[in-house]
Write the structure tokens for this entry.
Amino acid sequence: MAWFRKERKHSRSSRERLEIPADAWEKCAGCGHVGIRGQFDRNLQVCPECGHHRRISAGQYIEILTDPGSFTELYADLRSEDVLGFEGYADRIAIAQRKAGPQDAVITGFARMTEIEIDLAVMQFAFMGGSMGSVVGEKIARLARRSLEEHVPLVIVSTSGGARMQEGVLSLMQMAKTSVMIARLHEQGIPFISILTDPTTGGVSASFAMQGDVNIAEPGAVIGFAGPRVIKQTIGQDLPDGFQTAEFLLERGMVDIVVPRSELAATTARLLRMMLRREPQTVD
């Protein structure tokens, strides 16, 4: 009889229910911590265990630093050209554009940061290592000129392997061009805050990236000019551990403050309010 017959319910095992796809896990390069990708995403790609700051895109920095929907891109039509006929350069540009977008190694525009009008440039390491060629220098110089004309603070987020060797002396000229425009901002008392992320090296670190009224660095960021091997061969001496990290440079006055990614926007806005002599923002 059906009254005495026990029906078996087919249920999935707990092991099967809890199975997570392999590509959902992320591993921290700093401490080896393994966590779910969503955890890293919510933490702005900062390891919750050791605080290691992973590299993120220019678009992500724009989201972190600016008021929602306030960013307007400028000079997006500028494109790199192989004016020197450097072997393979045109192909490298095409590959970089497919990988990181057509804006070259920097995205420039204007936005609001806690209701403060700013001009913002964010470098893109995914585009040929954030190398500075003629387009990068021109976009930053134009943006600095706009800050000068509009009397708007300038904020630049740097990440770069240095000057773009495929453009030869043309890339090196961008160091002088951008530095001249930054000097004009200083003369007019227009605030310029430089945010240095991992890595900021070569011609970028030797020009505008280290010329801020305040130089902010992310924790653990590698900041320097030449690589450790080149420096050691040049001076013939052993170098201290971590001598090119943000914390090492902070101790020696090369950067002004080391700020975690989650606090970048609030810290930058607070500094700008001080420089502009505005009232601190009230929190409801």
Summary: The CA atoms of residues 97 and 104 lie 7 Å apart. The longest helix spans residues 169-188. Strands lie at 25-27, 34-36, 72-74, 106-113, 116-123, 154-160, 192-200, 214-217, 257-258. The chain has a mean pLDDT of 92.
